[in-house]
């Protein structure tokens, strides 16, 4: 079972300095306690923030730029802490590893739950859920970490009330950790930010070898763009191009590259942390069903309203130039030029251009106390660096 860390509201503005001051102490305490010499562990980090806007349940909006920036900032802190504490961050890394996932939870300080409130799964047209839905669908836990601060305790007590009856917890499973700077953030802090139009079909691509925090940020950012439809409507689609094995034969330490099937499966299992909702939780709920057709993997979530497709790609374009009905393309700083190339190809076909969204890069700057080079940090958490460590470990 995974463990849970409840993080209270982010600072406003949520720049890297402020995020590090707020979140690095509890993340450090939690990650170091979960480091085990005999096995790897899993951690879900639930970040409470009043992120959704809109009067009606099916008309929710949010600022994608602010949301993905917050997720990027937290994954940056995770990567820095794990590097400092010699904790592996990639999936299935074995002993001394923590597989951490950041989940945004829509919850404001003014949100009140009466004594007779019964938590239930409430969906909206985004993948972001409220605290009551999170408490209903996310369980059981190994340990629950909460921040020892006024805001942290308020969030923790509300969560326990909403999760009551879902799991029998002992006192040993409830672990307080020191918080960082406690900053009073008003609800709707980002109300003035430009709201993002979500999309029915979102696409991105990558190798996703030894899935790590950089991959998790990219996949989360793409999922945030999905416009989850009403029940009974055709599903929204998240199409993920996963580089085929043939294209990776010349990679450094190629013998340690995971197979396409392993990489695609890990992508879907990671996304299940964000997309799968069941009132029975994950231990007793339905397992993630992955179907295979024509060498590609498909999985459905939220009663079939969200469909994830992992397709095998053998070139730089993948499905973006073979499927006309794609709305958005998500890129990283490294693949920024690919967005223009894709739209040039689509223009040649007479197709509409894709809306291109660029995700922040993970950055060590302002998270540590000493200056550093972003390029050096990026190389430390890359798939090639992970393969090199595994190759070195095999030789030792």
From TrEMBL:
Listed GO biological process terms: coenzyme A biosynthetic process
Cytidyltransferase-like domain residues: 204-389
Residues that span the membrane, as ranges: none
Gene3D superfamilies on file: HUPs
Superkingdom, natural source: Eukaryota
GO molecular function: dephospho-CoA kinase activity
One Pfam family matching this protein: CTP_transf_like
InterPro entries, sorted: Cyt_trans-like, Rossmann-like_a/b/a_fold
PANTHER family, per the entry: BIFUNCTIONAL COENZYME A SYNTHASE-RELATED (PTHR10695:SF46), DEPHOSPHO-COA KINASE-RELATED (PTHR10695)
Protein name: Cytidyltransferase-like domain-containing protein
Organism annotation: Coniochaeta pulveracea
């Amino acid at each position: 079972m995974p463990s849970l860390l409840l993080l209270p509201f982010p600072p406003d503005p949520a720049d890297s300095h402020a995020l590090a001051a707020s979140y690095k102490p509890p993340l450090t305490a939690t990650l170091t306690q979960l480091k085990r010499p005999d096995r790897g562990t899993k951690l879900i980090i639930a970040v409470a923030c009043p992120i959704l806007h809109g009067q009606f349940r099916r008309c929710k909006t949010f600022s994608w730029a602010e949301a993905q920036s917050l997720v990027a900032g937290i994954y940056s802190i995770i990567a820095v802490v794990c590097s400092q504490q010699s904790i592996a961050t990639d999936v299935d890394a074995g002993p001394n590893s923590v597989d951490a996932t950041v989940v945004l939870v829509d919850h404001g300080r003014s949100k009140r739950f009466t004594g007779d409130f019964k938590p239930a799964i409430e969906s909206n047209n985004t993948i972001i859920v409220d605290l009551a839905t999170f408490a209903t669908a996310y369980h059981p836990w190994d340990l629950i970490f909460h921040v020892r601060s006024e805001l942290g305790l308020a969030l923790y007590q509300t969560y326990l009330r909403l999760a009551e009856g879902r799991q029998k917890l002992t006192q040993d499973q409830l672990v307080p950790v020191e918080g960082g700077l406690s900053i009073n953030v008003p609800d709707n802090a980002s109300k003035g930010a430009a709201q993002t139009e979500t999309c029915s079909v979102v696409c991105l691509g990558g190798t996703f070898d030894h899935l790590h925090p950089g991959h998790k940020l990219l996949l989360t950012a793409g999922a945030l763009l999905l416009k989850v439809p009403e029940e009974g409507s055709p599903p929204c689609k998240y199409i993920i191009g996963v580089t085929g094995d043939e294209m990776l034969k010349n990679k450094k330490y190629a013998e340690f590259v995971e197979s396409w099937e392993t990489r695609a499966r890990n992508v879907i299992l990671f996304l299940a942390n964000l997309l799968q909702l069941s009132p029975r939780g994950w231990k007793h709920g339905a397992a993630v069903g992955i179907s295979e057709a024509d060498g590609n993997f498909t999985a459905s979530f939220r009663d079939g309203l969200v469909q994830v497709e992992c397709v095998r790609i053998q070139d730089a374009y993948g499905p973006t130039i073979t499927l006309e009905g794609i709305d958005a393309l998500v890129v990283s700083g490294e693949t920024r030029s690919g967005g223009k190339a894709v739209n040039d190809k689509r223009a040649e076909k007479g197709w509409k251009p894709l809306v291109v969204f660029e995700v922040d890069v993970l950055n060590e700057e302002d998270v540590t106390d000493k200056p550093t080079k972003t390029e050096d940090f990026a190389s430390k958490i890359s798939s090639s660096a992970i393969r090199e460590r595994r190759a070195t470990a095999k030789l030792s």
